[in-house]
Amino acid sequence: MIFWIKIFLISLFIVFSLRLRFPIGLSLIISSVLIGIFYYPSIETILKLFVKSISSYPTLKTVLIIYSVLLLTNVVKNRGMENLADNLLEIFKDAKYAIIFSPMIVGLLPMLGGALFTASIVDEIGKRIDLKPEEKTFINFWFRHIWEYIWPLYPGLILVSTIMNVPIKNIMKHQFYLTFIAFFVGLIFVKRLKSFKIESKKNIKKTFFQIFDGFLPIIVIVMLIFFTNIKEELIIFSVSIFFLLLLKINFKKKISLLFKSFSIEIILLIVGVMIFKDFFSNSEAIKQNFLALQNNKALEYVFLIFSPLLVGFFTGINQAYVGILLPMVAPIILNNGNIDFQRLTLFYASGFVGVLLSPVHLCLSLTKEYFKADWFKVYKILLPSTIPILLIPLILEIIF
């Protein structure tokens, strides 16, 4: 009982610190200190684990990957991303299908508040088919986020890979169906919209080439991750640097992009997550008490579904529920040392449903404000759309 009271106090501190807008990374580091005080025998043990965690290969690897992704985002933007969406409009005959591809394509890049980037394009096409503000909000927001279950550039997926010590490609193989579900849910919504034919004005071959060229850095990264044994962090960093050097901008601006891509807040988040993970996973008391939950199905599902959904809703970012909760629930997800991917998928999907519904999710709030949409009307579309994302992994977990 005392054990769970301590866990509750740590969780309470995290919730209140997030409520007070503490940086998540700092909140996790302080929480790690509390874990050390509660469950470790001495100050010396705590300090040693701190140093070991900060300087460990997984921590340094994750920092390098996240920095490289931010750099890649800036590189692609400087390659002329604005033209990509325009070229997509030339390919599709019907505006109601063309409208979904701008957020889908830009969604391949994990930009903070990136949904705002395509809002103007969605707005322009949406006017031609008389979309309401809430419908434009849903399309721009929903289709941007269909990739986050599988795309190897997203920080949440990178953190899952690091915390569970499993290659990203393995997670992608088991979670790919969530992207298909999200796509078809969005498509069902779009199909009922009225059609508006677009007349092609450009050479189709040239248009396809421009789209291919615009996303070449991402294509190269994905191909190398899937078809080589080169370490992910080296692939993403090398490709980002290579295409940075190819940019037709002066040397001073290239150096500026290197510094611009470095975020103290994000580095602090990664370090905080890794320290928190190590303090949780290295405590025998914590391991034994959480392993005991494997005999209680009801409590297991609270940790696998309700907890990540709640943290996702309150924070609006998937790094938060992954970083805060996955180290806690890892013993439930592991089965005799092997990862139960069905449970890992259920955990990830539950948290991400919370993120999708969160009013503090920057993409959702920015899009809603851009289109001057009504929150209640947005949720009337959004809430039922998230149900299959949560329900299907739960059914698969129960059956299999």
Describe the structure.
- With 400 residues, the chain is an all-alpha fold.
- The protein has one domain (2-399).
- The protein is built from 21 helices and 2 strands.
- A two-stranded antiparallel sheet has the order 1-2.
- α6 runs antiparallel to α7, α6 (95-106) crosses α8 (133-142) and α18 (318-333) packs antiparallel against α19 (341-357).
Short description:
It is built from 21 helices and two strands. It is mostly helical. It has one domain.
Topology:
Blueprint lengths: L1 H18 L4 H16 L3 H12 L2 H22 L3 H10 L3 H12 L8 H14 L4 H10 L12 H10 L3 H24 L12 H11 L1 H12 L4 H15 L4 H10 L3 H18 L2 H8 L5 H19 L2 H16 E2 L2 E2 L1 H17 L4 H9 L4 H25 L1
Antiparallel strand pairs: 1-2
Task: Name the features.
mainly alpha; globular
The radius of gyration over CA amounts to: 22 Å
How many structural domains in the coordinates? Answer: 1
Largest sheet report: 2 strands, antiparallel
Approximate helicity band: over 70%
**Outline, from the CA principal axes?**
globular
Strand order of the largest sheet: 1-2
Tally of individual helices: 21
> Uncertain regions: pLDDT < 50 for 5+ in a row?
none
Strand content: under 5%
How many angstroms does the end-to-end distance come to? Answer: 32 Å
Structural class by secondary-structure content: mainly alpha
Q: What value does the average pLDDT take?
A: 83
Order of helices and strands: HHHHHHHHHHHHHHHHHHEEHHH
